[in-house]
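dude i think i finally got it to work??
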Amino acid sequence: MTTTQHPHGDGPMQLGAHIGQQNMTAAQMRDLWKRLDAGGADWISIWDHLYEAPPQGGTVPHFEALSTLGTLVADTHNARIGCLVFYVGYRNAGLLAKAATTLDHFSGGRFTLGLGSGRHETEAAAFGYDFPSLGERFDMLEESFELIRSLLTQERTSYDGRWVRADDASCLPAPVQERLPIWLGGIGERRTIPMAARLADGWNAAYITPERFAHLSALLDSHATAAGRDPAEIERTINVMFHLVTDPAEVEAERGRGRAPWGDLANRFDEGALVGTPEMAVERILEYRAAGAQGLNVALRAPILHDALDAYLEEVIPTVQRETA
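look at this
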């Protein structure tokens, strides 16, 4: 088996998990991320939703992101930790900067901050948040990114934007990491990719094919060069749905189980998924590597199929890391 070396960095591909914190008790979730951390996952993240996904009208038990992260960083010791992505409309940007540096300290310098423009209008309305137009949310995202970067790197920050403000603010203690990474998540070609090229330490895409990822990664390179940045400075990862099975006879049944909750959106999520046996998963992951991904995270949704998770940790991750070393 051969692979194409990633053009933006050497070393084994980083493999992790993105947990949807719903349909689980707190104890079950803690057991899950401890298993991931002990089992060799390079990355563990959660999402920033107030309601379940796919939407069911707020009928599914669901935990909030920032408070969950506090327990996640305390329970783990090895994996990098993050949330890809925080919607900047849910929290004051200064507060989010303070939370980021706090989590960086309690994790021993393992925290990555992901930001995005948001898309779940129903849950925002349910909790009383304004939900501006898409263009305005991107303006809010850019202002928030600039302010948070300054708070995490400068002794004092003043900022007077339309959406966010700061008045001679400090953010102490400074992060443990010399430069706490700030990532952008999304696949939009008009605003997300150019903004990531100018500002971000990393870019995360979700649920797209390797071919689409390669296209967007090349576009990111082009915008970074135009902005005077070395494209190699920007890390790139992909989130994929997780539908591994240990029995080849169960592949189609698992494919159907994965599609069922999404209705009209099923085709979109099916395009960016690991479906099949561990061997099939390795082949698919290596396609993402060849397309420019330095890391891949499987989206874990309860109920967790523990034999499939064991196969991911014990077979898929070691094989991919050997192939990409």
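The chain is about 40% helix and 20% strand.
im so relieved honestly
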